[in-house]
Amino acid sequence: MKKTKSRGAGFTIHPLDEGAWPAFARLVEANGGIWGGCWCISFHLDPLGGKGQCKPYRETKERLVREGRAQAAMVFEGETAVGWCQFGPPHELRNIKHRKQYELEQGGLPDWRITCFFVGKGYRKRGVANLALAGALDEIARLGGGVVEAYPEDVEGRKTSSSFLHGGTLAMFEREGFARVRRLGMHHWVVTRTVPKRRTE
Question: Whole-angstrom Cα distance, residue 27 to residue 55?
Answer without folding.
Answer: 19
